[in-house]
Amino acid sequence: MPFTLPELPYAYDALGPYMSKETLEFHHDKHHQAYVTNGNNLLKGTEFEDKPLEEVVKGSFGKNAGLFNNAGQHYNHIHFWKWMKPNGGGKPSGTIEKALTDSFGSFDKFKEDFIAAGTTQFGSGWAWLAVKNGKIEVSKTPNGENPLVHGATPILGVDVWEHSYYIDYRNRRPDYLKAFVENLVNWDYVEELYTHAAK
Ligand SMILES: [Fe+2]
């Protein structure tokens, strides 16, 4: 089934001042659109043409680099838009708060590890919180790769490609990551994915 660009779940100016309208216009309308367009071109005539997106991502990894890069980035960005919301961020509540405290010792330690993963990802990529074998862990991946191809289920991810922060933060990637955790994360969506993945 062909890839389609989802609408942003909020207005383009809704995440300011932490992520600007200009960033979202470029990131969603140009970059994500390009992954959709290129992905659809590369899907044609392959064994993955009628497969769900997650299967395209997992099946093309290590086999069809062009398709994988675009399918991976399509999957990552579909979730990335939903991992943010206006007036988001801060400390979560519910089962995800308990899971973070159980796994990292405290919410602050999770925050430190997550920001460190994003800061130390050399070049383009992502930092993640994912569920693997019933446990939650922080990781980082290059380019379009994600925890799905490492046997884990991503429940939170932050895009550290320069296109995600350079307009608003220039080279200050750590400041962008801090703002993401403190002001943008949609913990309700993380909780939903965690509940589903932990079953
Ligand atoms: Fe991106």
From TrEMBL:
Domain of life of the organism encoding this protein: Bacteria
SUPFAM superfamilies named in the record: Fe,Mn superoxide dismutase (SOD), C-terminal domain (SSF54719), Fe,Mn superoxide dismutase (SOD), N-terminal domain (SSF46609)
Organism: Lichenifustis flavocetrariae
EC number(s) from the headed UniProt entry: 1.15.1.1
Cited function: Destroys superoxide anion radicals which are normally produced within the cells and which are toxic to biological systems. Catalyzes the dismutation of superoxide anion radicals into O2 and H2O2 by successive reduction and oxidation of the transition metal ion at the active site.
Broad EC category: oxidoreductase
Name this polypeptide is given: Superoxide dismutase
Positions of Mn(2+) binding: H27, H77, D159, H163
Molecular functions (GO terms): superoxide dismutase activity; transition metal ion binding
Stretches assigned to the Manganese/iron superoxide dismutase C-terminal domain: 92-192
Similarity field: Belongs to the iron/manganese superoxide dismutase family.
Keywords: Iron, Metal-binding, Oxidoreductase
Sequence ranges assigned to domain Manganese/iron superoxide dismutase N-terminal in this UniProt record: 3-84
A single Gene Ontology CC term: cytoplasm
One Pfam family it belongs to: Sod_Fe_N
Catalytic activity: 2 superoxide + 2 H(+) = H2O2 + O2
Cofactor: Fe(3+)
